[in-house]
Design a protein that fits this description.
Number of helices: 10
Distance between the termini: 28 Å
Largest sheet: 6 strands, mixed
Order of helices and strands: EHEHEEHEEHEHEHEEHEHEHH
Bound molecules: NADP nicotinamide-adenine-dinucleotide phosphate
Number of strands: 12
């Protein structure tokens, strides 16, 4: 990588940022496309977000990704916001525009593209969505806009699931969406589900934990997508597999949210063939060799 006076800078703002895989995605893309661009992590301390966004603009930073805990907090500091990101209420990508940054949410489109590459459809599916945090909210929007037959949001705190359902009924008309406590999942009547695991249960180092312990429901999950990628195979995925289902972890979602951000910053298209070696590099970075 040659850094000179014309090198553009992109980066990640969040706290913590030390374990991010995003530099692997963007610096390899820059190399692949022979773009004079470097991507670095920027640790932003609590209370420093407004100055960080303003300062990045003054330093001519081309674009930034935003991670925990700033995906919603960053919104007031944007010049513009994409309509979908506004609906979701979370921004993970900032694109330089006149006088500031425009905010996008590429997590959702990243998950959609990742699922497509795995041949996992949302259209006409009964989606069992586990969790009602920030990620689950975005996935609920994705499922509604991608034509799911029914969306069932199950959460430990049922009130949070009910809140998402209320909001979505106002925003996307005609969506069949219901809220339910995790403990009641067994009472569902549907025979077959696409399940999307959006809780933090099972995340490293608590790798033995699983949000649904009841074996019966796994017989009805034909595909289980887990947004977690550390560990590479979660306990949830192991259970889906053991009951004959197909699985996908969150690494490809992470890859494609990055790819879509890179496409927005550089006005280019990244193909599935170009994405494949990046996934391998991310796996190597995680110590996964398969
Ligand atoms: P969040 O807003 O903090 O939400 C956490 C969710 O997990 C809530 O629904 C919470 O339920 C549930 N939960 C936590 N502990 C639980 C427990 N012991 N039992 C049952 N439920 C529990 O987090 P988030 O931002 O939505 O992220 C969720 C997951 O998605 C994380 O693991 C994150 O790493 C992953 N993620 C991956 C990507 C990717 O690119 N692959 C992108 C975004 C997020 P309550 O409401 O009851 O507390």
């Amino acid at each position: 990588m040659k850094i000179d006076g014309k090198t553009r800078t992109c980066g990640l703002i969040g706290n913590p940022v030390e374990h991010t895989l995003s530099p692997v995605i963007h610096n390899n893309l820059a190399q692949m496309f022979e773009t004079n661009l470097v991507y670095v992590p920027f640790l932003v301390q609590e209370g420093g977000l407004a100055e960080a966004v303003k300062g990045a603009y003054q330093l001519n930073v081309l674009g930034m990704n935003v991670t925990v805990p700033y995906k919603s907090d960053v919104i007031p500091y944007l010049k513009e916001i994409d309509a979908l990101a506004e609906k979701i209420g979370a921004v993970n990508t900032l694109v330089r525009c006149e006088d500031g940054y425009k905010g996008y949410n590429t997590d959702m489109s990243g998950l959609f593209r990742a699922m497509q590459t795995e041949g996992i459809q949302i259209k006409d599916e009964n989606v069992l969505l586990l969790g009602a945090g920030g990620a689950a909210r975005a996935v609920a929007y994705l499922c509604a806009s991608a034509g799911a037959k029914k969306i069932i949001i199950c959460n430990r705190t049922v009130e949070k699931a009910q809140e998402i359902v209320r909001e979505m009924k106002l925003q996307i008309e005609g969506t069949d969406i219901v809220a339910m406590a995790l403990a009641d999942v067994r009472t569902l009547a549907e025979e077959s589900f696409l399940a999307v695991q959006c809780t933090s249960v099972g995340l490293y180092p608590n790798v033995e934990d699983v949000v649904l312990a009841d074996g019966e429901i796994y017989d009805r999950i034909h595909t289980g997508v887990d947004l977690i990628y550390r560990p590479y195979e979660t306990q949830f995925m192991k259970l889906v597999k053991a009951h004959g289902g197909k699985t996908m972890n969150g690494l490809k979602m992470l890859l494609y949210q990055g790819i879509i951000a890179y496409e927005l910053w550089n006005q280019c298209d990244v193909t599935e063939e170009q994405a494949e070696p990046l996934l391998q590099k991310m796996k190597e970075e995680m110590g996964i060799y398969e």
